[in-house]
Write a structure and sequence with these properties.
The chain contains twelve helices and 13 strands. By secondary structure, the protein is α/β, with parallel strands linked by helices. The protein has a seven-stranded mixed β-sheet, with helices on both faces. The protein binds pyridoxal-5'-phosphate.
């Protein structure tokens, strides 16, 4: 008897497991497992969201006209070259469906964002991981893995979970090394947090070529992760393809109106950035002082490497943090079983982390 079988690749997907938000038996937990905004959403975005509740019998504006205009105004981009999606995750999947398929390769950096591998498998393409150097993407290694079957190259800049980044000139060098029929996807989900002078989110690369796109999200600095809102800036031909492929109403009205309000609230954006500017170096510094290995990060999280030895392992540290009500993100799915990732939290949460990992270091 014939059995029902999904397309090749799909059963190889280990379903993505998001950061946990609760600890069994605990009434409250400090959730630092999903790189969310410490300060939460703009009150103006919340008000817009609440107002939208009354019109939820209406379909959304499928073209997200006002939202694209607001993104264009804020980032000085042509709205006609912007596509909105249900999170940047949806845009990654749409790009994959549009440009990769069975027998073709999708290239990314070894500890790059997990969705590249999962969505490549989802379309039957072969995920190819290029080795990194000290947890940083390596342009030469990426270029060295190109083959005649490579269709797309994904680079998260800054990268989740490592927190590292490629400087603008390195990113440009990566692009220069790609054939014109290979699409470079620059995933700049954390761009709003970055202060490094040699960093670029990649807009000038998109402007100068037909084979580069940049994806962004409202889930991080803008604090709207639950609404699922992302956007992409790309060449007209890619934008046209994505509009054909996307669902006609892929971005819900509450997400659209909250996104516009969040963009308008510059004070809230600045507060969120200033919070990260203060607590990212503080947390990294305090944890290093305690003897933990903290990888340099320019985003809103840190990656901490623990010993391989059982008492001092990442698993032991995770369990210890959990006893103190703190949820970190284990990194085995990223091939980093000795690491934990922690988001930058509120002041009291960051202090709680340092207290907990201080006690962990002393006992281990
Ligand atoms: C590098 C990177 N890209 C994309 C995403 C997905 O974000 P979104 O919430 O917009 O789907 C994340 C989420 O953690 C991320 O870390």
């Amino acid at each position: 008897m014939a059995t029902l079988r999904p397309r090749p690749g799909i059963l190889e997907i280990e379903p993505y497991v998001g950061g946990r938000s609760a600890i069994e038996g605990a009434a409250r937990a400090i959730k630092l497992s999903a790189n969310e905004s410490a300060l939460g959403p703009s009150p103006q975005a919340v008000a817009a969201l609440q107002a939208a509740a009354a019109t939820c019998h209406r379909y959304p504006d499928g073209g997200a006209e006002d939202l694209r205009a607001a993104i264009g105004a804020r980032f000085r981009l042509d709205p006609a070259r912007i596509v909105c999606g249900a999170g940047s995750d949806e845009l990654i999947q749409l790009l994959m469906r549009a440009y990769a398929g069975p027998g073709e390769e999708v290239l990314y950096s070894a500890h790059g964002f997990l969705m590249y591998k999962l969505s490549a498998l989802g379309v039957g393409a072969l995920p190819v991981a290029a080795p990194e150097r000290e947890l940083r993407a390596d342009v030469d290694a990426l270029l060295g893995r190109l083959s005649s079957r490579t269709r797309m190259v994904f680079i998260a800049n800054p990268n989740n979970p490592t927190g590292s980044y490629l400087a603008a000139d390195e990113l440009a060098r990566l692009h220069r090394g790609l054939p014109e029929d290979v699409l470079l996807v620059i995933d700049a989900a954390y761009a709003e947090y970055v202060r490094a002078n040699d960093y670029s989110a990649g807009i000038e690369l998109v402007d100068g070529a037909d084979n580069v796109v940049m994806t962004r999200t409202f889930s991080k600095l803008f604090g709207l992760a639950a609404l699922r809102l992302g956007w992409l800036y790309g060449p007209p031909a890619v934008v046209d393809v994505l509009h054909r492929l996307r669902g006609p109403f892929n971005v819900a009205t509450p997400a659209q109106v909250a996104g516009i309000a969040a963009l308008e609230d510059l004070d809230h954006q600045e507060r969120s950035r200033a919070h990260n500017d203060r607590w990212l170096p503080w947390l990294a510094g305090e944890l290093s002082r305690l003897g933990h290995t903290v990888h340099p990060s320019i985003a809103n999280f840190v990656l901490i490497e623990f010993d391989h030895e059982c008492m001092r392992s990442a698993a032991a540290a995770s369990a210890w943090l959990e006893r103190d009500g703190i949820i970190a993100r284990p990194m085995a799915a990223y091939g980093l079983p000795h690491c934990l990732r922690l988001s930058i939290g509120l002041e009291a949460e960051n202090h709680a982390v340092v207290r907990s990992l201080g006690a962990f270091a002393r006992q281990a």
